[in-house]
Amino acid sequence: MAGHPQPRRPAGPPRILPLLLLLLSAAAIIPRGDGQNLVTEDVTVVEGEVATISCRVKNSDDSVIQLLNPNRQTIYFRDFRPLKDSRFQLVNFSNSELRVSLTNVSISDEGRYFCQLYTDPPQEIYTTITVLVPPRNLVIDIQKETAVEGEEIELNCTAMASRPATNIRWFKGNKELTGKSEVEQWSDMYTVTSQLVLKVGREDDGVPVICLVDHPAVKDLQTQRYLEVMYKPQVRVSQNYPVQGLTREGEPLELTCTAFGKPQPTDMRWLRVDDEMPQHVVVSGSNLLISNLNKTDNGTYRCEASNAVGKSHADYMLFVYDSRAGEEGAIRSVDHAVVGGVVAVVVFAMLCLLIILGRYFARHKGTYFTHEAKGADDAADADTAIINAEGGQNNSEEKKEYFI
Questions:
Q1: N or C of the chain: less Cβ packing under 10 Å?
Q2: Which of 144, 257, 297 is nearest to 209 (CA)?
Q3: What's 86's DSSP letter?
């Protein structure tokens, strides 16, 4: 009995997917070659941004290019993506390049990615993705919100959960300061705390202290706190009248005291050092007025100001001159100028006279020696020279005339 023919199975689609999976499995065990025909570069990317991986062939022979992740799962085989991760997208595919982008990169994506080329023998090279994580928070804690001048305060700046560890820098205004940092590691993240100890003065009030992050994943990340420093009053006494000149008898004197501090001084008073304040002195707030000066007012007058931090003062030394002190001083100045001019003229005249006398004596002394030497050249001896000298002859003639 003839058997019934077996029904044929209907022709289905070619079994491409099982074959592809077989190839992918085989790709996972391809031995690593020397990669002499493959080129790629390492990638550094900030968390949350896009990393681009490029596998390039220097001398293409139409061999198949494939990209694998750190677990050696195939991301792209030519232009086909078997890995079900939509963050991987094909940027470019050709016989000489396979370029793939990875969006929204996280720490878990870090590692080695393999480029493979199906040649004989197969070639392989890898690229490394490094993920940078900027600090999550940057906070300054200050030991005291308000400090007093001369105190030391402590500031701490903390940069949390960064990768790699953050370098923290300190600035007071435009001047860089040095802090002391400690690093704590939690899994793959680092928390850095930097401590700054600062001695403050009144000049630091209102000045910003800046904590700045030096990290490859971020630029210009900083935070700051303004210093608040309390200090004693600064006191100054100024003379309103007389504006210039001497404080003379019978004239008025007006002084003003100014004081600045933090907090602003609330208590200000005038006193006379080592003596009682004269009864005719009028004090009105920060002003001191003496309407009619006399020599009994001489002394040191002090303005004191105080606030919650402390007390300070400034002194004014008063010396009352005679009423004509300024005029006499001017007259004395004129007299001194006149005397000085007369002395200069006399000295000049004496110098001129000395010069004239010196020239006169020098000229007559030369003539005397010349006359004395005449006739000496022809004399046979010293006696004859004396007789032959003009002077000697004259004397002889004079004597002859006298005896005649």
A1: N
A2: 144
A3: T
